[in-house]
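[Discussion] Sanity-checking designs against the backbone

I'm trying to build intuition for which residues belong where. Below is a C-alpha cell string of 208 positions. I'd appreciate it if someone posts a full sequence so I can compare it with mine line by line.
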C-alpha cells in the first residue's frame, strides 16, 4: 500500500510526519523549507503570493525577497526541477509561485516506524508481570506469615494469666517483640511491592 500523504511525480509529502520522500527515500529539507513546500502543494494550481509565504512560513518575521528566492531555489534542487522549464514550481513574475504538478492525496499506510513505539513486545510484558507478581507475592506471604505469628503470640500471652515473679512482664516483652517483627515484615512487603511496580513501569523514583 502506498504511503500516506500528497503524491506528485515520484514524491510523497507527508505533512503530519513532516517529511518528503522520493521513491521511498527521505529527502533532506529543513523545517521552514518543508513548510514552504507544503504550502505550495496544498494550494496546487493556485498562485501563492509573497504575503502568504511570509504569514505561514516565516510567521510574519520580516525577511528579504532573497530569502524566499533562496527557499524556492533549494526546493527546485530537491525536486530536480528547472526554473526555465518547470514541472513542479512555476514562477509568476513579481507575484509569487504556483505548484503546477498534479497532486493526489492518499490515505495509504502509516510508516512502519510510526507504530514501533506503540508496539508491545510479547516477551517483555510477561517478564515484567512475572517480576511484579513474584516480588509482591513473596512480600505478601512474608507479611502474612509474620502477622499470623505475631497475632498468635499476642493472643497466647493475653489469654495466659501472669506467672508469679514477673512472668507477666516477660510475656509482655515477648508480645511486643513479635508485634514489632510483624510490623517490620508488613512494611517490607509494602516497599517491595512499590519497587516491583515502579521497576515494571520503567520508573525508579527512589533514585531521583
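Best answer:
Here's mine. Compare freely.
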Amino acid at each position: 500500500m502506498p504511503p500516506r500523504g500528497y503524491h506528485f511525480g515520484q514524491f510523497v509529502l507527508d505533512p503530519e510526519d513532516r517529511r518528503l520522500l522520493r521513491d521511498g527515500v527521505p529527502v533532506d529539507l529543513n523545517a521552514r523549507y518543508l513548510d514552504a513546500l507544503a504550502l505550495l502543494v496544498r494550494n496546487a494550481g493556485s498562485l501563492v503570493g509573497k504575503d502568504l509565504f511570509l504569514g505561514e512560513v516565516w510567521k510574519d518575521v520580516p525577511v528579504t525577497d532573497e530569502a524566499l528566492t533562496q527557499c524556492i531555489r533549494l526546493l527546485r534542487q530537491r525536486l530536480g526541477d528547472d526554473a526555465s522549464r518547470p514541472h513542479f514550481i512555476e514562477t509568476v513574475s513579481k507575484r509569487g509561485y504556483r505548484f503546477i504538478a498534479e497532486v493526489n492525496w492518499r490515505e495509504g499506510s502509516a510508516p512502519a516506524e510510526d507504530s514501533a513505539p506503540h508496539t508491545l513486545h510479547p516477551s517483555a510484558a510477561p517478564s515484567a508481570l512475572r517480576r511484579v507478581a513474584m516480588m509482591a507475592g513473596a512480600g505478601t506471604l512474608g507479611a502474612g506469615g509474620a502477622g499470623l505469628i505475631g497475632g498468635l503470640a499476642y493472643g497466647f500471652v493475653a489469654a495466659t494469666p501472669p506467672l508469679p515473679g514477673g512472668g507477666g512482664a516477660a510475656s509482655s516483652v515477648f508480645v511486643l517483640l513479635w508485634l514489632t517483627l510483624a510490623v517490620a515484615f508488613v512494611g517490607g512487603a509494602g516497599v517491595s511491592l512499590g519497587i516491583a511496580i515502579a521497576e515494571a513501569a520503567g520508573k525508579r523514583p527512589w533514585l531521583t
